[in-house]
Each structure stands twice: as C-alpha cells, then as structure tokens.
C-alpha cells in the first residue's frame, strides 16, 4: 500500500514513518511548511515549522531510505486555521487551532492531495487508535466498521483533536503510535533506529504563536479596541484593550480596578463582542450542565452511514476493544461521556442528535419550540444536545470542541454553541 507519512521533524512522526516502512508499505515522507515566516530555529519547545524542523524531518527520511518532500501549505494554513483563530476570538468564542488544523490541513488539504497523487493512506504521529470490527450488515452478511479510540497513553492521547476529521477521512488514516503506552517507549524506538530526533523536545502551545503571547498576537492582528469590564449588575469594574482577548472561565489578566464586594475571585462569564464588553462574575456562574453543539458529526455505528475502510496491515500492537453499536432510546437519547478540553476529564452525560443547535432546550426555550430529534439513527443531524448526568462542568465556552465518547471509543464531535445551567426545579 502507498502511504504518505506526514513528518513534522519531531520524534513521533519519525517513528510513525519508520513503523509504516517496517510494516511493508511503500512510504513517502512529506514535511508541511505551514508558516509564512519560518525561523531558522525553534524557541526551545515552542512553535514549529522552522527550517530546523524541516532539516530534522529530512534526516529522518534519509535514515529510513524513503523519498522526502516539503509541501508549502502556508497559504491554506493562514486562510483556514489562523483566520478561524482570529475570527472566533473576535466573535467572543474560544477556538482550538489544533482541531482546526486537523480538520483543514492534515485531513483535508494534505489527505486530498495525497489521494490525488495515488496514495492509499496518510500516516501521522498522533496518539490514537483505529480499531476495526465486523458487524452484521443490512444484507445479512458482515461489514467492517472502523472506529477511533483513545490511545493507551493517557498523557498524550489525541483522539479529542482528531474527532473532527470524521469517519470518511479517518478511513484513509493510519496512526502507527496507537499502541504505545508512553512517550519514553516512542523515544526508545527512535533511538534504536538511530533517529537523531529521539531526544528532541516536544513542541507545545499554539504553533503559530511561538512566543506563547496569545493576547499580543491577537492585538497585533486585530488592533487595540478599548472597552469596559463590567460585573453582572452592569457596573464598570475595569477596562480592556479588546474583548477578543478574553475567554469564558479566565481569571488572570482581567485588569480589575477593585476587588469584589465579597472578596472572592472573579472570572470572565461572558464576552459580548457587539458592545466590546467583558462580563465578570463569581465562580458559580461558570458551572453548566447543558451543552448545545453545532456542526456535529457522528462515527459509524452511531448515526453515520457506513464507510468503506482502507485495508491496512497493522503497524503497532493494539489490544482488541469490546464495542457495540449505539442504540438511542425512543426520544433519541443515549448514554455516553463528553470531553470539552484536549486533556480534560470525560464526564457522564446523555446525548442526542438534533436538527439544529438553536433547538437545544434551555430555560428560555419553550417545550413546543424544541425540534424533534433524529431518533431513527439513519441520517446525521447537524447538531447535538447534551445533558450532563454527573457533576457540572466549569468554564465551557462557545467555540470549544465537545467530543462524545463511550469508554475509549469516539462516538461524535461538535463545536459548542451554547452552555448553560438548567434552572433548579421549583
């Protein structure tokens, strides 16, 4: 099978490419140049796509004896990932650029180009598992279902940011590191193969904000826009240079002129871009137990149609995972766990597919205005409704990705459009 290996210049992608080669695939390495102004070197562990990274990827490809190319995707990256990052903050929402990068770059631009060039799959250094199983088909025979699962390496699991790729694109993806339980194991594999990146530090934070100053980056692109910070009664308690640089749940850097009357800490509870206003309040206002998600997608065996998987030979040992199809109740609800941050803890919930995010009920939506759910489980709807059944979550902001799990298995994903606390029963 012809496999395109995405090689960032780090140890994970180098080992993933090596495992694909050793599995007998015809592998070609590609480094994606995503920055328009690439530095010669990275700043410690910050940033990516430096000339140093491209050189490290080339040396790894040479060690593996595979062809190597650099593809300039910087314009696409700027027009999608960076543009989304800016527009979401400007709209008072909290984006996740890693999710958008997987959606628009790695599993859209890169995968589409690979397919056009005749490659069967793309291999990346992500920590996640793809598990296949056979289930009864409509014709009475068996069909193969391809599922996305968490990595056994809890600290590095990336299933949360991969869920946005959806079943069709993940059907052409390979994650050779899926069975590794620790980063030390991956580094040991790199050292064993003589790869010079075996001890290279991981990159972190937002790759295109190499100095880690997100607020400074936003201000350099969006300009200064002075406005007011107000409490929940509308009283001005501070000033800011741009509401776009605040996010729900934020505590530090609020620039408040005086403490709250009760002496307790205050947090951002709302960002109102129309009036350039930031609203702060007590911690209890951040707790939510209801979430509406837009742009929802579902994986096969949940609400999505069948996807023909790519036949791949295993490139790492993956323990079999017991799974089964999700069967919603008569109203479309099913039990699951949801996660709203890349390394956040999953919490128990009831979830269902609905016709639109605006139809998710709240204390200001009448019963008769709620749309019917897709209880038949045939056609995926563009939104989801979530009721947390355990402890409430704090600081859930519009724009965040919410991923639905059952155990290790990813069931679906959506972008948070609204989060609120259901009114207490009278």
Order of helices and strands: EHEHEHHEEEHHEHHEEEEEEEEEEEE
Counting H and I runs of at least 4 residues, what is the number of helices? 8
- The gross shape turns out to be globular
For the record, give the distance between the C-alpha atoms at the N and C termini, rounded to a whole number: 63 Å
Give the helix proportion (percent range).
10-25%
Question: Nutshell version of this structure?
Answer:
With 426 residues, the protein is α/β, with parallel strands linked by helices. 21% of the residues lie in helices and 26% in strands. The chain has helices spanning 11-22, 51-64, 74-90, 97-116, 159-162, 166-170, 183-192, 214-222, and strands at 2-6, 26-33, 68-72, 121-123, 129-136, 142-149, 173-174, 227-230, 236-240, 267-272, 277-281, 287-288, 290-298, 334-339, 347-354, 383-388, 393-394, 401-406, 409-420.
Structure description:
With 426 residues, the chain is of the alpha/beta class. The protein contains 8 helices and 19 strands. The chain has helices at 11-22, 51-64, 74-90, 97-116, 159-162, 166-170, 183-192, 214-222; strands spanning 2-6, 26-33, 68-72, 121-123, 129-136, 142-149, 173-174, 227-230, 236-240, 267-272, 277-281, 287-288, 290-298, 334-339, 347-354, 383-388, 393-394, 401-406, 409-420. The strands form 5 sheets. A 6-stranded antiparallel β-barrel has the order 13-16-15-14-18-19. A hairpin with a 7-residue loop joins β14 (334-339) and β15. α1 packs parallel to α2 (51-64) and α3 (74-90) packs antiparallel against α4 (97-116). The longest helix has 20 residues, at 97-116. The N and C termini lie far apart (63 Å). Mean pLDDT is 85; it is low at 40-47, 312-322 and 365-381.
């Amino acid at each position: 099978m012809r496999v395109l290996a995405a090689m960032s210049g780090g140890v994970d992608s180098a080992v993933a490419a090596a495992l694909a080669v050793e599995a007998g695939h015809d592998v070609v390495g590609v480094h994606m140049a995503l920055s328009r102004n690439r530095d010669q070197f990275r700043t410690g562990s910050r940033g990516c796509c430096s000339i140093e990274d491209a050189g490290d990827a080339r040396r790894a490809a040479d060690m593996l004896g595979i062809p190597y190319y650099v593809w300039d995707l910087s314009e696409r990256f700027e027009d999608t990932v960076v543009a989304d990052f800016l527009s979401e903050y400007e709209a008072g929402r909290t984006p996740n650029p890693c999710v958008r990068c997987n959606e628009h770059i790695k599993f859209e631009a890169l995968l589409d180009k690979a397919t056009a060039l005749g490659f069967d799959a793309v291999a990346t250094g992500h920590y996640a598992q793809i598990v296949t199983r056979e289930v009864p088909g409509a014709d009475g025979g068996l069909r193969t279902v391809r599922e996305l699962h968490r990595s056994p390496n809890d600290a590095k699991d990336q299933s949360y940011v991969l869920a946005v790729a959806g079943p069709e694109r993940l059907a052409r993806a390979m994650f050779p590191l899926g069975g590794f339980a620790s980063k030390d194991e991956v580094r040991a594999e790199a050292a064993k193969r003589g790869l010079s990146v075996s001890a290279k530090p991981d990159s972190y934070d937002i790759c295109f904000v190499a100095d880690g100053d997100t607020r400074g980056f936003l201000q350099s692109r969006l300009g200064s826009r002075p406005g007011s910070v107000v409490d929940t009664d509308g009283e001005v308690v501070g000033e800011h240079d741009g509401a776009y640089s605040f996010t729900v749940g934020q505590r530090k850097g609020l620039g408040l002129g005086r403490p709250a009357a009760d002496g307790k800490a205050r947090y951002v509870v709302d960002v109102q871009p129309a009036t350039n206003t930031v609203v702060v309040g007590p911690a209890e206002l951040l707790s939510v137990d209801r979430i509406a998600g837009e742009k929802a997608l579902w994986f096969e065996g949940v609400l999505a149609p069948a996807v023909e998987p790519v036949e791949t030979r295993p490139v790492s040992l993956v323990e079999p995972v017991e799974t089964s199809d999700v069967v919603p109740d008569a109203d479309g609800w099913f039990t699951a766990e949801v996660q709203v941050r890349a390394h956040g803890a999953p919490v128990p919930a009831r979830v269902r597919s609905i016709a639109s995010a605006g139809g998710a009920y709240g204390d200001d939506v009448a019963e008769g205005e709620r749309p019917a759910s897709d209880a038949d489980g045939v056609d995926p709807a563009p939104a989801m409704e979530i009721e947390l059944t355990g402890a409430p979550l704090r600081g859930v902001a519009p724009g965040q990705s919410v991923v639905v799990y059952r155990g290790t298995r990813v069931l679906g994903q959506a972008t948070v459009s609204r989060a609120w606390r259901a009114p207490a029963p009278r």
